[in-house]
Amino acid sequence: xxxxxxxxxxxxxxxxxxxxxxxxxxxxxxxxxxxxxxxxxxxxxxxxxxxxxxxxxxxxxxxxxxxxxxxxxxxxxxxxxxx
Length: 83
What we know:
The protein is α+β, with helices and mostly antiparallel strands and 83 residues long. The chain is built from three helices and four strands, in the order βαβαββα. 42% of the residues lie in helices and 13% in strands. A two-stranded parallel sheet has the order 1-2. A two-stranded antiparallel sheet has the order 3-4. The protein is globular.
């Protein structure tokens, strides 16, 4: 998951990933702060394969999932998220 400090959507997506880590034995994640790592939107766009204007950008097993709401929807539909 790529995000940045102070971004409310990044905080929300990271909290969801932490919850999934607690609830599932087969889920773990790595959070990459794009500012701390010197990653630009252009760099992120190349990784995603299309223009990226927002963070977070989430991947699951190297497959691009999308932003915060995309990640939330994916988790609800595919990862049996316990609310």
